[in-house]
Amino acid sequence: MKKQLLIGCAAAVATVSSASAIAAEASANVAFTTDYRYRGVSQTDRDFAIQGGFDYALDSGLYMGTWASNVDNFNPSPVTGDNGAQAEIDFYVGYGLALSEHWALDFNVLYYYYPGASTAGDNNEIDFWEYTPGIAYSDDNMSAAFSVSYSDDFYNESGDAFYYNASFEFPLEEWLTLGAHAGYQTVDDNELYFEDYADWSISLGTTQFGLDWSVAYVDTDLDDAACGGANICGATAVGTISKSF
Predict the structure, then answer these.
(1) Which of 102, 112, 138, 203 has the fewest CB atoms in 10 Å of its CB?
(2) 162 or 6: which carries more pLDDT confidence?
């Protein structure tokens, strides 16, 4: 599941003081990562992922886009034995509003879609909607984003869910950035997802040879038992190479 980013907020902060506005801007991104972690939990069974997306933003603050990644066989059929979803595809639309040179607001709606996931037998629906208001701040010394995501019927039909997110970036050198993140996930029915838990990460990022490089330490307060006996919630290092166009 896609890491929630305040896309509209970041765009609004970056362009609020621009002298010339453009009617629209399209962009794309592609990434290779050693482990797809969603809110601290591996979606690829601690294996590699190839990811990419497209965004389209208007100078009014409205934006939309899609993003996709491989995942590890979500919801195979218990009846036919067919494989489950091997991909996650996200669709989103949002609006970013610049409040000042440094502050911006954002609201977006995101749909998580898992093609091939089965609802046969005891399998629940795993596709879901999520709604996220947020606020972002940016200056020469740091950037920060704070958001709360809400779903009225979260993954695996686990009911009402909230995700509280705080993310920060600090330039250490002209070529090196330190990132930090902390989040907390709650769900109405813990038996259908995980118990409520915290996740956090710290990362270093740079741009070299026309590519973006990052390495992150990612962890949660979930143990293997809480993750169904699988080692998908524990501490790990994640490396990512990405490119935006």
Answers:
(1) 102
(2) 162
